[in-house]
Structure formats: C-alpha cells, structure tokens
Specification:
two-stranded antiparallel ribbon; alpha/beta; 12 helices
C-alpha cells in the first residue's frame, strides 16, 4: 500500500465510495453492502481495495463472519460520518431557501424490499424534500401492483413473483439480488456450496408467502410437488425456524444479515429463477406529480462510476 496522500485522497475518492465503506461496516459484509448500494460485489471490493491503497493502511479486517473496521477504518468511518452529517445540514439549509417539491406522496412496498433497499433511499428523499408528506405502507408483495393500479399509491416497489398480474401498471427495473438456501448448522446439505430445488424438496422447506408460487412452479418443472407445511409472512421468522432445526428455507440474500453468521448455513441456490428482480410500479397512462417524478429519478439513478478511470490512475501512480 502507498503512503497516505491528502491530495490523492481528494482527487480519487468520491462520496459514494465513502458511503459504500460505511455500508460495509454496518452490514459487516462487502457483498451485502454492494447489494444495498446497487453495485456489483466485485466493483465494491475493488473500490474498497483502492480506498485502502490511498489511505496507506488496511481499513477493514476480514474475519470468518465478515468484515469489521480496523483501527484506521474506525478513524475513517468517524470522519466520513461527519462529512455526511455536514451534507445533510447543507441540504436542510438549501431546502429552507426554496419551496422545492411538496404535497403528499404514497409509496407501498414489502418488508423484504423496504429493509435492505428502500428505507435509506426514502430517508434521503425525506430529508432533501421536507415539504413532501411521505407516506409509506408495508403490504404484501402481491398487493403492491393492485394498489398502484387502483390509484391508492403513487409508487410501488415489488419483487417479481410467479403469476403476478401486472395489468394496469408501468414497470421499471430497480434492483437485483439473489435467492439463497438457508439450512441449519450440521445439516446434511451444509457442506455443499450450492443446491437446487430438487435437493430442497425432500426437506421440510419453509416458505415465505411471497415465494410459495415460485417454489411450487419450480417443483413442478422437476416433476415434483411442493405443498408447504409452514407458510410465513416474515423471512426472519422462517430463518428462526431453520435455526431451531425445523427445516430449510429460501430467502433473499440481502435479508440473511450478519446476525445469522455462524448460526445457520447459507448456500447458493443454483437455479435460473434465483435471481430476484425488484421493480418500480406506477399507474399506466396516469401522470404523477413532481414529488413522485423526483423520487423515481432518485431511485433509478445509478452511482456515477468513473471507477475504471480511478483504478487506472491509481495503477499508474502505484
């Protein structure tokens, strides 16, 4: 690693990378931080590696359970949070000088989308546009599209699901993550790196309600049947039952947080349908107000990624 260079830091490190670094600390896993910030895991790893090279010291200690900040990383995290606090203050002052967007904005989504993705985005939007009365309802994934189509919500954020009726809404891709299999420690499948639906069907497969249709369809494609004994609303409850030894489950990877590390086994689900696609829904043919347009633009704006150029510059200067 090169020595710390203040000018190099200013020129090379962008705010998004600092936020990614903070997310890695909060999630305790670079992969989950990448999902949260909507970039590829390999890109997230590269950004943090280059950040460490610029700092001249190791910022994250790798452990069997994930990552934790090193002493230098703790220092950087403290200063990075101060930077973002200052940006929030500046944003609030700007808002007080202008009217900005205002009115009521209704958003509906499922817990499995709100927790890992949407909560932070909505928090940022609310701070930037304090005159907007933001109303968020947590509803079942299957009901989100219908509420938007009926005009009961301005924006819906939902995970694609088997048999979901999209009539009456316009759909725009938002995020992606993957479904994984979760098994008890010591389970017969636990020493494998990946499993298929055929491997899981002989087990007591505990289903989140939103995934029952997809699991049933996947079983039928293999010539099997799936009739769950337990159908749960909460993914966290399903993982708790797995931890207690009552079966196995399939969950979005982003919901299997660091608190479960070392308590359950997490395996790749080697199925083409295991890629989880999350979309925005707006009412088809219906104009939505300025606040909704701003939020949609914010949700769909990817991080500016000049990182290829940053990496080349760093390689040249190394």
């Amino acid at each position: 690693m090169s020595a710390f260079n203040r000018l190099h830091l200013i020129r090379q490190v962008d705010l998004f990378t600092l936020r990614l670094f903070l997310s890695a600390i909060e999630e305790q896993q670079i992969g989950l931080a990448a999902i949260r910030e909507n970039i590829a895991a390999s890109t997230a790893t590269k950004r943090i590696q280059v950040l460490e090279n610029i700092a001249g010291v190791k910022l994250l200690d790798r452990t069997p359970k994930g990552v934790v900040p090193s002493p230098a990383g703790t220092v950087l995290a403290r200063h990075a949070r101060q930077i973002f606090d200052s940006l929030d203050d500046m944003r609030a002052e700007f808002a007080s000088l202008t009217e900005g967007a205002q009115g009521e904005l209704r958003v509906v989504s499922a817990r499995s989308v709100i927790v890992p993705f949407l909560a932070r985005e909505l928090g940022e939007f609310s701070r930037e546009y304090p005159l907007v009365d933001l109303i968020v309802h947590e509803v079942e994934n299957a009901d989100i599209v219908q509420e938007v189509a009926r005009g009961e919500a301005d924006i819906g954020v939902f995970a694609s699901a088997y048999g979901l009726d999209l009539d009456g809404v316009d759909v725009t891709p938002y995020r992606r993550d993957r479904l994984v299999a979760v098994v008890p420690l010591g389970h017969r499948l636990g020493d494998r790196t990946s499993v298929t639906i055929r491997d899981l069907l002989p087990e007591n497969l505990i289903a989140p309600r939103a995934l029952v249709g997809a699991l049933r369809a996947a079983a039928q494609r293999t010539g099997g049947e799936y009739e769950p004994r337990h159908v749960l609303r909460s993914g966290g409850t399903a993982i708790s039952l797995v931890h207690a030894g009552l079966g196995v489950t399939v969950q979005p990877e982003c919901l299997v947080g660091h608190e479960w590390a070392g308590r359950v086994g997490v395996l790749e689900l080697a199925e083409p349908w295991a890629e989880r696609r999350i979309h925005l829904a707006t009412a088809r043919g219906r104009d939505f107000g300025p606040a909704a347009k701003i939020l949609v633009e914010q949700l769909l704006t990817p991080p500016a990624d000049d990182w290829a150029k940053y990496s080349e510059d760093t390689d040249e200067q190394a």
